[in-house]
Amino acid sequence: MIILLVLFVSLLLLGMPIAFVIGIAGTGFFFTSHSVPWTVLVQRVVAQTQSFTFLAVPFFIFAGNLMNETGITKNLLSLARLLTRSMYGGVAQVNVVLSTLMGGVSGSAVADASMEIRVLGPEMDRQGYPKGYTAAITCLSGLITATIPPSLGLILYGFLGNVSIGRLFVAGIIPGLLMCLFLMVTVTMTAKKHHYDPPKEGAKAPTCKELCTNLKTSIWALLFPLILIVGIRFGVFTPSEAGAFAVVYALFCGAFIYKELSWTKFKKALKNAISDLGSIIIIIAFSGIFGYALTYGEVPVLMSKALLSITDNGTLMMLIMMAFLFFAGMFLDSDVNTLLLTPLFVPVVTAMGIDPVHFGICMSTMITLGCMTPPVGTGIYVVCGIEGCSIGDFIKESIPFFVAILIEVLVLILIPQLSLFLPNLVFG
To answer: Do residues 332 and 356 touch, judged by C-beta distance below 8 A?
Structure first.
């Protein structure tokens, strides 16, 4: 086990791609362990991807790319602009609302943030927002997609932790909406303080007639997560089959509702989906080796005993784990953290009587928050690179939004029913 950890830390510090860090460190364990046959190494790589549940991941990735190419994003943006036209910090508010609406489409925080910085970044620059502020709200509002279904992080967590993906999807709705509220309040406060983008004189809240007119086109995107949840709840399809349905739904909307799907856009969506999936599948495959080594060395059991020896208070344990996940997210990608830490933490929270669905929502949020924190946060470098702002400016402007998100997570920890009310209502 010492070789495993030394290799992992050393290769990580050298800047090697994380998939190979995990794979080489896991292979190092097999070199030093004479009691485990080498055939197990190959078996674990293959077995890690041979899951019917895992099929949901490539399907949802492809569906998300299709929806971005078929007019759904454009119609959601129109709805977000209508809902926020009378608010302080109008375009920044659009950013938050669009992330909430896109949560049921993209499933990926980084994908959502990179799309929105291209769409809304130039407009925010014209309205006089500092580039650091634009990058901060775009990046951190993308965090909402970590809980709004169909979140890819929740699919991986459910797959690895043997937790109901249907319950996780439903559990993420209220926390996602709550995060939207916290971020919109923060935008209002900061925009008023610095006089960013005040509402136009005479601007009023949207009327019912305007909302109904707009919903005629955007309703198809808004119905998508609802159809998924209802379908899973009543056994119409499994989570994996829901992913296949998502692809068909996106094709149907693009071809027959918005009529914007072309062969060029289809090929572009397919190419982007293959690229996204390629980086994920190699990490998942090699994590099978690493996970086997950890299990063989009884690391989950040792960690469980160590954590349980600290406290038997569930709330305090959640706080300790969330702090650990926050710092882990600074150095490892969210998918990697989910793959490595889910098998370690789920047995601990289950032993303490904490609902793994509730823990999964909090864990997904904190792990994804790591994508927005230096030194390794992929979301930061993508958004700041497109917007052309420095990391220092991003950090300075992002502090109020980080505080808002951490307060929201604290509220979720202290009031578990915010996560559990809807899944208990829907699934019993």
So the answer is: no
Cis peptide before 150 (omega within 30 of 0): yes
pLDDT in tens, 90-113: 888 988 988 888 765 655 677 778
Q: Which helix H or strand E contains 48, and what residues bound it? A: none
> Which has more pLDDT, 85 or 374?
85
Instruction: Give the global pTM.
Output: 0.79
Pure H helices in 195-262: 208-233, 239-252
3: pLDDT confidence band, cut at 50, 70 and 90? confident
CB atoms within 10 A of CB 275: 11
Place of tokens 């904490």: 354
CB-based contacts of 9: which residues, under 8 Å, 6+ apart?
none
Reported as a single tens digit per residue, the pLDDT across 207-237 is 888 888 888 877 887 787 778 778 877 778 8
Q: At what angle do helices 131-141 and 109-126 cross, to 10 degrees?
A: 150
Sign of CA dihedral 200, 206, 210, 216: positive
Cα 95 from chain centroid (whole Å): 16
**Measured CA distances, 324 to 207, 330, 363, 367, 370 (Å):** 46, 10, 10, 10, 11
Q: Are 158 and 360 in contact (CB under 8 A)?
A: yes
Q: What is the pLDDT of residue 421?
A: 93
Least Cα distance to 408 among 150, 217, 147, 43 occurs for: 147
The Cα diameter of the chain in Å comes to 77
CA atoms within 13 A on the CB side of 175: 41
CA distances to 59, 107, 128, 179, 262 from 380, rounded to whole Å, are 26, 18, 21, 19, 32
- Helix-then-strand count for the chain, H and E: 21, 0
Q: What confidence category does residue 131 fall into, taking pLDDT thresholds of 50, 70 and 90?
A: very high
Q: Which two tokens stand for residue 117?
A: 């910085």
